[in-house]
Design brief:
It is a single chain. This protein is α/β, with parallel strands linked by helices. Helices cover 45% and strands 13% of the residues. It has two domains: 192 residues, Rossmann fold, CATH 3.40.50; 53 residues. Strands 2-1-4-5-6-3-7 form a seven-stranded mixed sheet. Strand 1 and strand 2 form a beta hairpin. Helix 2 packs across helix 3, helix 6 runs antiparallel to helix 7 and helix 8 crosses helix 9. The longest helix is centred in the N-terminal third of the chain and has 15 residues. It starts with a helix and ends in a 5-residue tail after the last helix.
């Protein structure tokens, strides 16, 4: 029988594994963070479209692009919350801006973090903090439910904690909600608390920690049609304006919505019918 102390030491090793070795950040431009076990998985090819194809979001595009340029050059930059209508290119813009800044010669990295893994963000920041590269930490579709405590972990990314956010990390998040919390949750807290303002301050102040709020709103019909025409021109899909307009409007009617995502879905169907590979 082995020594009891050896068995205890082995059990402790299993409970507290050795710190994760820093990955080779030079091997890729994009990574996805996974837990159990902790690891950064390189992404050989990022799923994104060219920024020139993102129409109707000019102000948000220009603001986020300039903020990212500043950060990539080692200058002060803000965390950004891209909020608003679904399917209007929030996550596509983050990925397109990353590609555009890299094309300008800045060795910028992007790391995707899932909302469910926010509790591990301290360990992730520990890995990124010690590297010479600069990182956009990206969380897509960020929101919190009534009993969700993940938002407390997010404060470490923004500006909380003794160490604060590493100088080489900026945080970009997308959400359908401006304040990240359901409105009924905020109103319920306000109505039942002894001090209504204090009851909601912690939750509402989370979105206040983002220096940039970039709003995305439903597109007009003209913008919707222009998006599709842009896709057709970029990928060499030939269709006359009258047919495109009739089909695209019918497509949006069957979906009950009009957005950049719906425009891409129609274009995907159109390209498939014409035998054009994307």
């Amino acid at each position: 029988m082995s020594d009891p102390l050896e068995r205890i030491a082995a059990a402790l090793d299993r409970m507290s594994p050795a710190p994760l070795e820093a990955p080779d950040f030079a091997g890729a431009d994009a990574f996805v963070w996974h837990v159990d076990p902790d690891r950064l998985v390189p992404v050989p090819k990022v799923n994104r479209i060219d920024m020139s194809l993102l129409l109707g979001i000019d102000r948000a595009r220009d603001t986020l692009l300039e903020n990212t340029r500043q950060f990539a050059r080692g200058l002060p930059a803000n965390n950004a919350l891209l909020w608003g209508a679904r399917g209007m290119g929030k996550s596509s813009l983050v990925k397109a801006v990353h590609a555009a800044v890299r094309a300008e010669g800045h060795p910028l990295k992007i790391v995707e973090l899932q909302r469910e893994d926010l509790t591990s963000v301290g360990r992730l920041l520990g890995l990124l903090r010690n590297d010479a590269a600069r990182f956009v930490l990206f969380c897509d579709d960020l929101s919190f439910s009534h009993d969700d405590q993940h938002y407390k972990s997010l404060k470490a990314v923004l500006d909380g904690g003794i160490e604060g956010r590493p100088d080489n990390v900026v945080f970009y998040a997308t959400s359908n909600r401006r304040h990240l919390m359901p409105r009924d949750m905020i109103e319920n807290e306000r109505s039942t608390a002894i001090s209504p303002s204090e009851a909601t301050e912690e939750k509402v102040s989370l979105s206040d920690r983002f220096g940039l709020w970039l709003g995305f709103h439903p597109c007009s019909q003209d913008e919707y049609l222009a998006m599709i025409r842009g896709y057709c021109d970029a990928y060499g899909v030939a269709i006359d304006d009258e047919t495109l307009r009739a089909e695209a409007i019918e497509w949006q009617a069957t979906r009950g919505a009009r957005s950049g995502r719906v425009a891409w879905q129609y274009f995907t169907d159109l390209a498939g019918r014409q035998g054009v590979a994307l």
